[in-house]
Amino acid sequence: MQSGQAEHHTLRADALSLVNDWVASVANVAPTSTVAFTLALLVGFAGLQAPLAVLGVGILMTFCAVGYARLNAWQPHAGSPYIWVGHSVSPWLGYATGILAILAATVANVGNITLFGTYLLGIINPTSTFDNVVVWIVSAAMMGIVIYIAIRGIRPSIQFQTAVIVFEYTIVVLFVLLALKREFIDAAVGTTAPSLSAFTIGPTGIGGLVSAAVICGFLYAGWEAPLVLGEESTAPHYNPGRAAILGMAFLTVWYTFLILVFQGVASPGDIAANGTDILKYAGGLLLGDPAGRLLAVAVLSAVFATTQMQLTESSRVVFAMARERLLPKSLAGVHARFRTPIIAGLALGIIPPLALIPYLWSQGARTAIGYVISADGLLYLAMYAVITLACVWYYRRILSTGTRELFMHGIIPLIGGLAMAAIFLYGMYTQPFEVQVVAGSLVVACLVVAVIARFVSSSPYFQHEAVAHEVT
Question: Cβ neighbours of residue 264 under 8 Å, at least 6 residues apart?
Answer without folding.
Answer: 48, 179, 183, 191, 192, 193, 194
